[in-house]
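Handout, section 4.2: multi-component inputs.
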Amino acid sequence: MFFDQQKSVMAFLQHFALLLALIIVFSTSCKAVTLEVGSVEVGYNDSSKSSATEDTSTSINGSTDGHAPSVISTLPIVTWKWHHIETPYLVALWILTCWLCKLVCELNHNVTSVIPESGLLIILGFILGGIIWGADKAQTFKLIPVNFFYYLLPQIVLDASYCMPNKLFFSNLGAILIHAIIGTCWNAATVGTALWACYEGGAMGTLNIGPLQFLLFGALISAVDPVAVIAVFEEVHVNEVLYILVFGESLLNDGVTVVLYNVFDAFVSLGGLKINAAEIVKGIVSFFVVAFGGSFLGVVFAILISMLTRVTKNVQVIEAGFIIVLGYLSYLTAEMLSLSAILSITFCGVCCQKYINANMDEKSVTTLRYTLKVMANGSETMIFVFLGVSAIDKNIWVWNTGFILLTIFFVVVFRFIGVFFLNWVLNQSRLIPIDITDQFVMAYGGLRGAVAYGLAALLDEKKIPEKNLMLGTTLIVVYFTVILQGITMKPLVQWLKVKRAAHSDLKLIEKLNNRAFDHILAAVEDICGRIGDNWWTRGWNRFEENYISWLLMKPKARKNRDYLFSIFHKLNLEDAINYVSEGERQGSLAFSRSDEAANVDFKKQFGSEFADVMPNIMVDMSNYELGIEHFSVTSIVKDTIPSVSLDIHGQDRKNAMDDINAHHLLQQHLYRSRKHHRHKYSRSHFSINQNEDEVQEIFQRTMRSRLESFKSTKMGVNPAKKITKHHKKELTHKMPNGHPDGTGHLYGDEVDIAVGSETGAINSTFMRDTYTVGAGIENPVFLPDMDSPTHSPPWLMETEAVAPSQRAQRRLPWTPNRLRRLAPMRISTCSTDSFLMADVSLTLEEHEEHSQTDHVEMRQVFD
Amino acid sequence: MGSTNSTLLKIPNVEVLMQETGFSPAHIIRLHDRFKALDKEGRGHLCPHDFGAIKELAMNPIGDRIIGAFFSPGKETVDFHTFVKILAHFRPVDKDRPKEPNSPEPINSRSNKLKFAFQLYDQDKDGKISRDELLQVLRAMLGMQVTDEQLESIADRTIQEADLDRDDAISFEEFRKSLEKINIDHKMSIRFLR
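Output:
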């Protein structure tokens, strides 16, 4: 244990040293630049002079001239052209640095399980800032609002809204809006007023801040940051209603805060004397116009995007790009019209997800999802690092103990009062009231983040003389909430026993009954003769189906989109993949050989392995159990084993007949053998590299076609799944071709430990059997002694030969191992509309974790 | 207030009814009004065709089954008491209410809600959802969008998921188990009956 820890610490240090070396090299180069050119403005560098940008361009021009003199005496072979690439180079270097920071953070799970990643990134940011300070004696790099609002924030919001669990979001929209709008206004007003009152009471000495400035500060400090909130809540796995309330609120609340900020900013510029009733009314009107106008603009863009994706099938490769560009445009357009940009892009993402997921090709959906993740995660990392870097700056620190402490106090206290009051109001009419612990966590989850900092940095020093004090205080509030509250959140959730997200398996019967319940409730409302929630839901669904889908969806996508059926289809595919990967792992995939054997063997062998769970295939179970069919089944298995190998190239040299067969078969399964494989590059067509992915290639295509015909005989029923569960952990250690990463991390250490201790005893015996039979990656062709002892008792064979790894490799190779930001869907399997398409496997993984504990009981059943 | 009392007084055994269902007087009155409105001929009881007259209900894919749930086997009519009791299944669970130790299980308990849903499938009342019964419901709900073959395979899969004893049918116990993860209080409750 100690050794392990030491090792990881060593690894950590090594990586960190690497990082430091990089930073030092890089910062000295920066220093050189700074010395040479004076004030350089790069991506994140703001010397807080408004004319800095102009400086850059002129200085760059000037220096290029210097480096490329018009008269040269001899032909230079290479020249040093730092100033040509300076800005993009520094930007790229910073991106790299920030991402390396994230890498460093993720190295040690012991640390990340205590301190949330966002907090660690900020702390690393401090260190980086310190290094830069040491090198430059000034803070050359910091997060400037323009970069934050135009280049870093949009993709985070777009990603969050695109991945929003739609159904859950809209069914809680009322509560979310009330919290976001009224709650934010309440926070802004009370924090501002209370601070002002304390100032008047003399708690902060003399400051040059008027009541309006205090309100402005209150507005900017009330932005609950989705980035920080998601980062923390995702690790905690709270229940889905709580999650969506906090998440939705923080997302919309940002928009509201910016609007509020602008209104107060206008008031401040106007000056206290000119404000009369008319101006206040205007302010309120503009608040609503800006907020709802922005949301409306977002919906308009969502409609545009959806309609566009109806016709993009010929340019599939850039299909996903359209969504990103148009989403970004919705942000910029709203900004241009001085509407709320954040609200615009939020509603754009939330509204269009359903239609674009249906319209676009499955690959494009995955691409989009992944691209958004990369961008959002990347910029989120950068934001946190720069929140840390920005702090190391002498200029912004104006210390005023009273102001800072009172701000923290009021921010927390009024958040609590606001949340509890609003929830009390909401609970009067909620079907399932929000209980007190949930309310507490909601209030405690009010983390402030980069939006508050960005707004504070936007403050105009001419209008607000104490800008630096506000900026510094904002930073302290951010650190206080992100680091301190972030760290305490997890223990608190555990201590309060907040209801966690129930990881439920994707089950057809649940979905079916959900559908039935909807109909029942609608019917009962009709019988009662009252217009209730279900009436509205049904009305909307009908309207959506008849008109909106018609407008926004491809006819093809419309036709084939019954929800229950798509779930069924997904489960089918899932099982097929499991079956194949299991078969391949055991090396006994019978259908990859001869035509004749393919169909028959599939069925038979399938039967032999799954007979106990597949009453439909093995028509007569009793026969089987009595051993009547036993002989034939095992003989088939034996027969097929020699012909199984995936490694066909080795064999087709031996036998010409085999060669023909193999080719025929391969062609049939659209599988290209290795020697015919050519690398092709095409800009507009992307094909999977068969060489690497031949395994998935085989199972995708083969199984898809085969399973279509076997639809009625479904496989992979619950019992079989359950037995296999706990092997996964072992497999990741023992099998080099498993996916060792991700497991431990996804499930969290505590699960492993808990399961391990509970099932340790059984595992040790169970696994021994297992590995003599299935034997990891080895191909049974090379295991001549397969037959006698292990195959003879069929009941043993079913449970133990099949069990080990039906799901061991079940993770789709193209499925992201660690899409951690997909948490919304992880937590809410009932709002599956948009998530199911790409992430089924993720959900299911969740269950494995959950059902690992079941296996003891299941095993008893099989014994 | 006077009118409230007079309406309540017209209903026989209203106290018992409120005790059993947990409805407030306001709910009872509202439901009574609705009952009278449905009972166009003023017979004091409802027939299936009274329900059929509700337009929206007629469009509900499983509407006829829900109507059927109001009528106990062999009976052609439903009186006000039964009507209210059936609707009481959909009253949200109230946590504040002190639980009396000896009181019978309330109508709106989780398992009663599930039983209500279960009997919608189980038309022959043999305590099991057979494949055919499931198929009928599926056909009603999915309608034209999928082929018969697909429907059958969906039904098979569904049964397999829930079927623990492998008798190719879902018993109530299996039904309950398979829906363990679902928040039935949420899914089978109507807000205005609170």
